[in-house]
Amino acid sequence: MMDENLFEKRMDFLKNSYKKLPIQTDSSAVLAQLHPQQEKKEFTKSKRFLQWPYVASFFGVVSLAVILLIPFIGEEDSIDQGNQYDEPKIEVDTKSQAELNAAFQELWRMYDLMVGDAALSLNVSREFVEQANFVQSAKSFIYSTEGRLRKDIQEGWELQPIIDRIYSYKQSVERSLLTPEQWMRNTHTLQSEEEVVDWLTTLIDKVKESIALYDEYFLQLPDQGKDYLSDDYTLSALQRNAVALELNNNGDKTSMKIDYEKILSLMPVQTPEAYTMYLQFKVDNPSIIHAGNILVSWQEHATYLVQLEDIISKLPNNSFLENELKVEYDQLLSLFVNGSYYNPSFNEKSVLKEEVRSAYLNVIELYPNRKTTFQLHEIYQMLKENGFKKPHNWDAYTGDF
Questions:
Q1: Orientation angle between helical segments 193-219 and 133-154, nearest 10 degrees
Q2: Which positions ≥6 away from 251 have C-beta within 8 Å?
Q3: Cβ-proximal residues to 390 (8 Å cutoff; 6+ apart), any chain
Q4: Does residue 243 form part of some domain?
Q5: Residue 76 domain-assigned?
């Protein structure tokens, strides 16, 4: 577009130039004074002849205007050309376009097949599997990746690196869509400790995803899937995916948890000792907490805390399993110190229960060099000084636990 300020300046210049043109004298008036006796016809003829100076002036102004406006015409053309270069339209040849389309079609074909395989492996409907978080995440990843890479092609990127990236993303999508059953078939490919740790932590994540999927699936079935759970094929699918199912005497599902015994049986010899210890601990000590309540005695609870501390100390810092165990440890420590709604640590007179007091003393005596013991000893001493009565500021003091 033309610059409005520059246009105004040019027009002012044009206007001033016009004003500076020589003023033309009315020659007809002069002739009338010199020859008052001329006939009207001759006077009219002279008047027509003498209009030419005005015509010349008009053409002079127009010519000057054209000269002044020529730069604007060239400038506007250059601006239009500049806009065209800002957003280049690169034509992708037919062969390259075909290769790109084929790569994406193969990626989507693999996605479609793997979603179907996941439904069969988990023994749930395909429609339900498609709504699972891990499937939705893979689908969104493919959509966003395809849009980004097609834009890269339009911007002039080379085709082959784009194709290579699509096939590398294919491996990531395949990894994310594997069920625990399918993932557990890869143990023969593990060579190093790093690969074993990655395999194990990924498997635990996948089993957790499967448990969450099953929980939602059973809720939408009649009687929360009671008949479904009595099916042998369903129970087999749970077992194949390392999901342990607990049923009560009525055959109702009470909970689902990770089948650590199955996972431990698959671990290769190059598994780091700390991780083998973790799995064995999980096998020997099923979860002691359910619905916010402790399922074991106070003494067993305290011992469990010390064992968790020992395992955490041997795991790599900030590793997946270390962080997971720390969360469990903090929750159990808080329940030991504060008790729960159904099993408080103080009796109805706000005095520390005798069995809780014994658990404190036993830990302090058997495990003197543990961080857990240090924290519990500090709390025990405070309670002892207060006659084992619950202090008024107890909740504020134990908030960090």
A1: 120
A2: 226, 229, 230
A3: 346, 350, 351, 352
A4: no
A5: yes
Alpha-carbon radius of gyration of the chain: 44
Q: Rounded to an integer, what distance in angstroms lies between the CA atom of residue 292 and that of residue 248?
A: 19
Whether 292 and 380 map to the same domain: the answer is yes
| Whole-prediction pTM | 0.66
pLDDT in tens, the chain (401 residues): 445 555 555 556 555 554 554 544 454 544 454 444 444 444 444 444 445 555 555 556 556 555 555 555 554 444 444 444 444 444 555 777 788 888 889 999 999 999 999 999 999 999 999 999 999 999 999 999 888 888 887 787 888 888 888 888 888 999 999 999 999 998 888 888 889 999 999 999 999 999 999 988 888 776 655 666 667 788 899 999 999 987 665 555 567 889 999 999 999 888 988 899 889 988 988 778 776 778 889 999 999 999 999 999 988 888 888 898 999 999 899 899 988 888 899 999 999 999 999 999 999 999 999 999 999 999 999 999 999 999 887 876 665 54
Are 294 and 391 within one domain?
yes
Q: Are residues 99 and 131 in the same domain?
A: yes
Last residue of a domain, one of 177, 206, 238: 177
| Separation CA 380–CA 385 (nearest Å) | 9
Domain enclosing residue 150, as ranges: 94-177
Domain tally, the chain = 3
* Cβ–Cβ < 8 Å for 333, 393: no
Distances (CA, A) of 285 to 38, 246, 261, 310, 396: 135, 15, 11, 14, 32
Residue 242 lies in a domain: no
- The torsion of the CA quartet 130, 132, 137, 138, rounded to 10 degrees, works out to -40
The answer to the question of residue 130 being in a domain is yes
Is residue 372 a contact partner of residue 365, using CB atoms and an 8 Å limit? no
Under a CB-based contact definition with an 8 Å cutoff, are residues 104 and 141 in contact?
A: no
Domain end (from 177, 210, 234): 177
